[in-house]
Amino acid sequence: MQGNLRDVSLTQVLNIINLSRKTGTLVLYEAKKTGQMEKVNAEQERERIEAGAERAHIVFKEGKLVHARIGEQDGNLVTVLNKSGKLTDGQAKIIRERTKNVNDKAIALKLIGANYVTQKDIINSIQQYTMDIVYNMSSWKQEPFRFQDNVMPTVERIMVPIDLKNVIIELSRREEMLTELNNFLPDLDRPLKFPPDLKQKFQGVHLSVEEWRVVSYVDPKNTIRQIAKASNMSDVEIRRVVYGLVQAGLVQVVEPAAGSALQNSSGRRARPRPKSSNVQADVVNRLISKIKSM
Amino acid sequence: MQTVKMVITGPYSSGKTEFISSISEIDVVKTEREVTTKAEREVKDQTTVAMDFGRITVDDDLVLYLFGTPGQRRFDFMWEILAEGMLGFVVMVDSAKPETFREAKSILETFRAYAPTPYVVAANKQDHPDAWQTDDMRVALRIDEDVKLLPCVAKDKESVKNVLLELLYSILEEMES
Lengths: 294, 177
What we know:
The structure holds 2 protein chains of 2 kinds.
Chain A: E1 2-4, H1 10-19, E2 24-39, E3 45-61, E4 64-70, H2 77-83, H3 89-98, H4 104-113, H5 119-136, E5 144-149, H6 164-184, E6 192-193, H7 198-202, H8 209-216, H9 224-230, H10 235-247, E7 252-253, H11 281-293
Antiparallel strand pairs in A: 1-5, 2-3, 2-5, 3-4, 6-7
Helix pairs in contact in A: 1-6, 2-3, 2-5, 6-10, 9-10
Chain B: E1 2-9, H1 16-23, E2 32-34, H2 38-43, E3 46-48, E4 52-59, E5 62-68, H3 77-83, E6 88-94, H4 101-114, E7 119-124, H5 134-141, E8 149-151, H6 157-176
Parallel strand pairs in B: 1-5, 1-6, 6-7, 7-8
Antiparallel strand pairs in B: 2-3, 4-5
């Protein structure tokens, strides 16, 4: 199974793996633009994308999610426990130094024995780490992928099976949220402005660092895209922040100039339904006999 | 003489013309023209602009016509004309091109809306090294379990026969139900 997330979404891919109870590794690659065009369907063309460097690995066993690794992250147990807050940075550093060339299972036994963590901590941390990696891919929309049947990680990792159904539901929810954000703010080239009763609106409001950063750039001269660039935010992040600010009534998106009529959807002409066939079973049986004999 | 027809539809370059050519007793009447865009040319040199037309004569009284639809949407005004009075239809899908799955699904839904006749989905090019398995395609295309999704190699006559027979069995089942 191979393809591109432009054509088959990650939730669809996971659904296939879940239903087919597949075992193996789903490798996702960086989307490398080629500058060449390819056909999407009979009328539309798009830029061809090739698989670049490997970006993430998701491992499955009999349709269950068991391991995920993204980019350069090694995903070993110490990193996982450090990320979940079960080990401090200092503890993680010391343990890494003392357990070079020791596999994750042996490290887990030592940590449990030394009362650093419990078995439950380890299972929960691994599950959360794995799911977070997959959830973070909800914004991936054009990465090429390939499923490698029966390929498992070469480095020994503790694998905690996770039911894919819940992952798919959560991933769908996140994808819907992204779609909602895109629908709310389809055009990032529009500026933001403050509402007229500015002082009253901002009274007693506590903004996050990200929100402050965006608010500080609000000016009819700055488009949302420019604000995102200046604030070092991705399109998704800026949409989320602006959405929150608009919902709270703290900023407004400047509407496009009047007269820019929305493009009409290209509705097809309604035509009468064609008549269906009125053929007897005898005719079908004769056709079957004929084709069998060919 | 009674004539019946089946329609072979599917996205651009899914193998409709080849499917009909493999089984038709006459040389397929092709209405192909050279493709006009660079991207299309990379896929194939010629494309069907009106319809392909194949024939299977059962006996003196009965003839089956196979009509292949043009894959390009700009010729979809032909689809309804071809769909009129059809016994059933086959939706061809290129198993090695997941980028065409969405289009295939859209064509399938369009033909279902034209006429409530039985249909099967042919997962073509199953001999291609990158071909998706039919079970995976069923999920990706969101095709119900009760719809036949059949592995197919359009250049192989036996494979084409199997697809047509499965469609005819479905038609028979519906008549008898």
